[in-house]
Amino acid sequence: MIKRLFSTAVKKKLSVEKLQARGGLNGKRVLVRADLNVPLDKKDPSVITDDTRIREALPTLRFLLENDTSIVLCSHLGRPKGQVNDKMRLTPVAARLSELLGQPVLTVPDCVGSEVDSAKANLKKGQVLLLENLRFHPQEEANDPTFAKELASHADIFVNDAFGTAHRAHASTEGVTQYVSTSVAGKLLEKELKYLSEAVDAPKRPLVAIIGGAKVSTKIPVLESLLEKCDKIFLGGGMIFTFYRAQGIEVGKSIVEEDKVEFAKALLEKAKQKGVRFILPTDVVVADKYEATANSKTVSIHDIPAEWLGLDIGPQTQTTFEKELSDCNTIVWNGPMGVFEYEQFAHGTNRVAEVLASCTKKGATTIIGGGDSVAAVEHRGLAKEMSHISTGGGASLELLEGKILPGDREIEQSVPSKRKLSNLDDDEDEQAPTHSDDEIDSDEENGGPELFAAFFFEKGKLGIAVYDALSTTLKICQMTIAQSELVTTLDRLLVQIHPMTMIVSTLNTVKHKILEGLDYIKLNQTNVVIRKIGNQLDDCPEIHVTAVQLCSFDDAMFIDSNSLKALQIFSEEHHPSQVKSWEKSKEGFSVFALLDNTYTKSGRNVLRQWLLRPLLQKSSIENRQDVIEFFTTSQEDLVKSLVAHLKSFKDYLKILRRIRSMRSKPKDWAGLRQCLSSFLDISKDIIQHPEAKSLCLFQRFERLQCLQDLSNLICNVIDFDATKSNSSCVIREGISCELDNARDKYSTIDQVNMTLSLKKEWSQLKSITLEFLSPVGYVIRCPTASFIPPIFQFQFEDNSFSYFKCSKCRELDERFGDMHGYILDIQHQYLSELTKAVLEQEHQLLDMLQLVSELDCYLSLSSCAQNFNFVRPAISEDAILLAKDARHPLQELTVETYIPNDITLSADSGLIKLITGQNGSGKSVFLKMVGVVQILAQIGSFVPASQARIGIINKLFTRLLSLETATLCQSSFSMDCNQVATMMNHGDSKSLMLIDEFGKGTSQTDGVCLLTSVLRELKARVKHFGGPRVVLTTHFLELFREPKLSMALGLDFSKLNNDSLTYHNAESTPLSCYVMSSVESSDENAPTSSALYELRPGIATSSRAIQCASSAGIHKDILTRAEEIIKRTRHGTRRIKAIEIGRQDDAFYDEMEMFMSNENWMNSSQDDIYELLKKMKSIDKFIRTN
């Protein structure tokens, strides 16, 4: 089941890049359908007036050529109506494409037939063959199966990169997919689909559409579709007059589609019902005739002259559009606002283009949906100011309508979504986000490998599998747990594994209600994608697994994500501009950041894993301590040497992945050699050190000495010095006699002297050169306009040059042939054998990376211990946590003087520590310090103290932080209760619980009672089971003042004099009381208290809330009144009655009402003024007497 879960989850929507990532391109012949329908000069059809569409095709073509494919390229040009038209041949396209690619583009006189088949069959790697205009054959637009099959002949892969024709079900867009085994999207098609699909399916709102053009009839489907998705719709162009007619407005001779008037009425009514703002122009530019030189003027839509016609939107409308667009985040524009071909009627279209450019600069996404709107934007020189310019007008319209394009429907895979978290109720075909190689590399740089975690629960057993797509290792585990523990266990595993994707079976999830119990917000914060699959095994690619390992997740401390955040173990910070859910974050001020002095990315990843999974085995912890202690004691020279080697060590997982997929580059082999060299130097330093033999690392380094042979093999086979000046790896001399002979023979070719000889023989030829081109062999290259000797045989033309053969060229062909290609083939053969040898050592290479990463962590922790005066703690199996002069490692960096405190949790001193103290005295910092010290000790690190003995815990719970959010319908007190419930339900005798002011979020009586009950239960557990260990802070002093409550806790207070409280235990109790001490000021008129941040036995007498409020800036009168009420309440003296306060308020409001009722007291009568003063005096007297 786990295997099926993985194979389904890894199924991804293919693009040309993702196909190559699977090794599916190398050596293949690819049929590419591009949209090369460029405009030609009407007077000279050989001249291209705009090569934009050719340039748009370059990224896909270059990518394919870089990956050793041969390309059969096809396109249409113009509308020849199924007949050969010499003015519409693709010859100028081939010439321009040759210039842009920097290599000859071969051509054939047709797109199908025996001559074309022969050219395809003889096509070599790195060559491009451009077929003739597809639409010379009527079968193309008819989607004829026979024609499609001929196009697909000799092709291994079909790449559709023609978005401009993707909405047409033609033979070259849809038909060919039936006769090619693999069909994928090119870079341009993928880009178009991504922008346009996201614009309407998952836009940043408000979403607005600007629709222009002459006729409503061509935009009916898109208008109906956008009405369901947009917040605003703007209309322009000739279609607006049909909508005016629908409103009963006279439009003169303006274009009106009478049969669409009723549709316009219905659309306006529907927009009103849905609350979509349907914005029509309020003024238009009209003309007396449809000509560039016509008389024109601007009028209101209600004042259009009878004999005039509207040709543009007016300036008032332009201003309205600009204002309405200012707050929009996604804008889609299709169609001009007027007859923009005529300058005097182009102002509306130009103004809209300028406004969209301005919106883009402010952060909005602007998409120009093809057609005339693209031409208008380009004419204004604003194309680069837009987020995306679509290359297909009709296709973009159909995509905006919500249709599936015929040219995309049959493509095997589509564009991935960038959503971070799938809806938990998605259907079975919901796909997990996909990542290109560049994205994976970026993930490595940001600290996160690509991990998939699958879970399956049945009959009390939980199956777990974790697949690392970079190291290609699969770890599996089985745990026996109760149904009641399932959600808690999954929550823990998600924190410790931190997968990119969580894979679960739909039926299994529903049956056991797995996802219902998991915290949605917590999943969102940890970037986990939920991927649910059904019971049917999809046809999907196999995943590559180099090793299957048994593992255990019971050997690590249980700690949830809330506790990690509350203790500041990790702290993610986002740049202000990174507001999208898929953006990366950086590490902030945290324990991890403090410890992280690593030099490799893999070392940083391992250190993070150590903090996520603190150890439970004493021996494992002590082994790590031994290594850290070794590096902290007089090993400066060794450490300096190791650090130097680590700095040159590369994280080679991505290198290994490219070598495995047979698409390695010279820099990859150089990187692997550098990694091996650095590792062997590190290994030599460790093994030769006399004191290192006792370390756990020593034997692991010894076992990997076999990698010396692999390093020697790579260096002996590849000549890295010669490779620096070549685009491919150069095999050393002496490896192959055949290769050496070929090189010697190739070196005798002196093209320079031969060129000089030709120039001397044919002096009338200018710029003549001898070149070798792999498709045709040796050729003579000279300008097309040059004199051509009759013995020269024409081969082909390329831009302004022509290529010929002569007898010398044929002699060279016979003598040398494609010697360079022959040399490359031999080198590739040896490189393949070397690749095989490397992959045979793949397990050892992965072990090498893990070992170097751990060494990096040890050096980092050692450096931290030295820099911050950490000490090695003694590790114990007992229930104990003793630390002398303990410090919070982060807090001490933020203050000038830090006051250390002792931590004493043991059976003798009490396993429950109850701490009181005034506000701001350091109680919460002490709690966090206890948690941080415990975690540091169990990852094997030294701790911030002068001496420590720490017992191992298996679970750590906290009630320190409530992550309130608008998406979580819980009060802060409810979240506090959930955290306490978790620790009470799942804690055991070896747990550590840190509780900060539980009960403060509700009424005082309820809070005190809840806290007392929790303490009583914890006390009973300690008495009967010897645990858990608890540190708790509170401001509820009623626990000690109320006899019944104190007796319930086993405390007996002997005296209470002058606010000085002491106590002794009524019985042998695990509970001990401590206070964060403070010192009182000697000023009797303004008594204050200063925190000493020192923990002492005892109980606080006050929280000093008034002093805290005063420091925060609350007004003195308010504080004076509060102190008076506190004093009278505490000592039972006279109180202000509620009715008196009510009367005072009523009198005041009567006074205010009387004063506000008269707007001009300066002109009021004396009687009115006297009455006002009388009321004011009565209120003043009332206040003074009370």
TrEMBL record:
Top-tier EC class: transferase
Cellular-component GO terms for this entry: cytosol
Record flagged with keyword Lyase: no
Molecular function terms, GO-annotated: ADP binding; ATP binding; mismatched DNA binding; phosphoglycerate kinase activity
Pathway the protein acts in: Carbohydrate degradation; glycolysis; pyruvate from D-glyceraldehyde 3-phosphate: step 2/5
Essential cofactor(s): Mg(2+)
GO biological process: gluconeogenesis; glycolytic process; mismatch repair
Region (Disordered): 411-444
Keywords of the record: ATP-binding, DNA-binding, Kinase, Magnesium, Nucleotide-binding, Transferase
This enzyme's EC code(s): 2.7.2.3
Pfam families the UniProt entry points to: MutS_III (PF05192), MutS_V (PF00488), PGK (PF00162)
Gene3D superfamilies: 1.10.1420.10, P-loop containing nucleotide triphosphate hydrolases, Phosphoglycerate kinase, N-terminal domain
Claim: tRNA processing is one of the keywords in the record: no
InterPro entries associated with the record: DNA_mismatch_repair_MutS_C, DNA_mismatch_repair_MutS_core, DNA_mismatch_repair_MutS_sf, P-loop_NTPase, Phosphoglycerate_kinase, Phosphoglycerate_kinase_CS, Phosphoglycerate_kinase_N, Phosphoglycerate_kinase_sf
Catalytic activity reported: (2R)-3-phosphoglycerate + ATP = (2R)-3-phospho-glyceroyl phosphate + ADP
Residue span(s) of domain DNA mismatch repair proteins mutS family: 991-1007
Family from the record: Belongs to the phosphoglycerate kinase family.
HAMAP family: Phosphoglyc_kinase
Oligomer and partners: Monomer.
Protein name: Phosphoglycerate kinase
Organism: Aphanomyces euteiches
